[in-house]
TrEMBL record:
PROSITE patterns: DEGV (PS51482)
Name this polypeptide is given: DegV domain-containing protein
Assigned keywords, A-Z: Lipid-binding
Molecular function (Gene Ontology), one example: lipid binding
Domain of life: Bacteria
Amino acid sequence: MDKIKIVTDSTADLPKEVVEKYNIDVLRLLVNFGQETYTDGLDINLKQLLNKMENSNIFPTTTQFNPQKFVQCYKKYLSEGYKILSIHLSSKMSGTYQSACIAKSMLQTDDIVVIDSQNVTSGLGLLVMKACRLREEGLSIKEIEKEILNTIPHVKSVLAFETLDNLVKGGRLSKTAGIIGNILGIKPILTVEDGEMKVKNKVRGSKKAVRLIVDTLEKLKTNGKEPIVLLHVENKDILEILRNKLDENNNYFIECEVGCVVGVHAGPRACGVFFIEDY
C-alpha cells in the first residue's frame, strides 16, 4: 500500500480538527498590506484582517508560493518514503498550482501528483477531505487521483455575498458582474464554476438567499460521504437561518470560517455552502 502524504494550501479553509485528524500539510499563503506581509492564519486572523481592511485605505493583496517553497516541502516527504498528493486552488485564481507543477518537474519524480482543484475555499477543502478518506480506505495514489479528477465537476457551491466590491478589487470578478452587488437590498448569489467565481442569481433579502441555497441542496442532492460545508464570514443573519434549515433536514454538515486569503476577496458578511453532489 502506498504511503501517501496529502498537501494543500491555506485557501482550503479546513477546520483545525480535520487537518490534525488526517495529518494534512497546509502550506500557508501570504497577505500583503503595503509593505507589511502576514502569513495566513498565523500572523493574522480573519477578525484582525477585516478590521484592518475597514480602517485602511490600502486594499491587501495575496501572494502565492514560489516553486522553491514546494520543492522544500516535497523533498522532506520524499526523503521519508512518501508519495505526495498535492491539491491546490484553481489555476484560474492563482499561480499556486503552476508553482507546484514546476517544483515537481524540478525534482523529476513520478512520486508527486499535483491536482488543480478548479475550486477554492471549502470546494478545495472537500476534495482534500475526500482524498484523505480514500487514502484511509487503502487506495493507491493513482486511484485517488482518478477519483478526485472525476469528482471535481461535481463540487457545487451556492454563496450569498453582502457586496461584490472586494471580488472586483481583487480581480476575481469583472466590474460589470460586480455592479449587481451595489443595488440596495440585493444579495448577489455566486458559485464557483469551471474554476472561476460566477454570479448565479440575485435575490432581495437574507430569507430569499437562504431559500435559494436550501432549494439548490434539495435539487442536486449530496453524496452523503463528505459533509456539506457551511461557510461564513461574520454573517450571523444567514448563518443562523441556514444552520437551522440544515438541522431540520438532517443534513450532514460542518461549519467553517474562511481564512485570510479568501477573506480578502470575500469581504465581510458572506455565507453559503459547498458540497459534492451525488453522481
